[in-house]
């Protein structure tokens, strides 16, 4: 099976700990050794600038993570290929692992669109406007104000539309979510689950999920235990419950996977790292046919890369 994962935070972990090896770092949920053994096809790497970084240093931090991506993820390994388009993802040679840059929260750009254009030129192909709180573009889901897109936020979504890159609605406030669904041409939820199954605010309700399905957007089911179960005692079977719920809404062809590996402290008890993906695949095969499983594992996402 070819695995495509819509979200991991390896870059942030390696920025915080420069001695970490992408090839075999034992503290990484996602490392190259595991990806090679397990059947990785494409991994999306988020640029997430920690909130503790001063505003004046956030853009430099983002650039440093871009450098880590190219110098420590891509350059040292003959079998790792930077991917910038749907065509490149579809035509990855056998034995090659594609990697793609994303941006989780635009705090690093402040109010400077030129900074975002620079990150796009450096390879970013998906942008989430916020993390959990507010910034110059919109409010995140934990910002009590709950505001939608600002005028600057709308101009940023316009920029994404112009450059044919995704606007990621994971982490957005409810109002901002609906603004992006209305205004964005290329939309995905890289790592969000079903609120009907688990009530965490980061999850999406049925109306939101249905709107993404109607927009033919990708919904990346995530492995974050507190997004899987209200008691956080999560396992692979809980991932199946969220997938089945989205299927029941008509979204079988919209489902992908967005692990959030390396951005979380707690993991499902039987899915503790990338090397455990076969357990999820085995469970998926108990309930779905081969074509559906291939779709969930990656074909649905690749089909929706803007082109």
UniProtKB/TrEMBL annotation:
Pfam families named among the record's database cross-references: Peptidase_M19 (PF01244)
PROSITE patterns cross-referenced by the UniProt entry: RENAL_DIPEPTIDASE_2
Coiled coil: none
Gene Ontology biological-process entries: proteolysis
GO molecular function, one term: metallodipeptidase activity
Protein name: Membrane dipeptidase
Organism the protein comes from: Guptibacillus hwajinpoensis
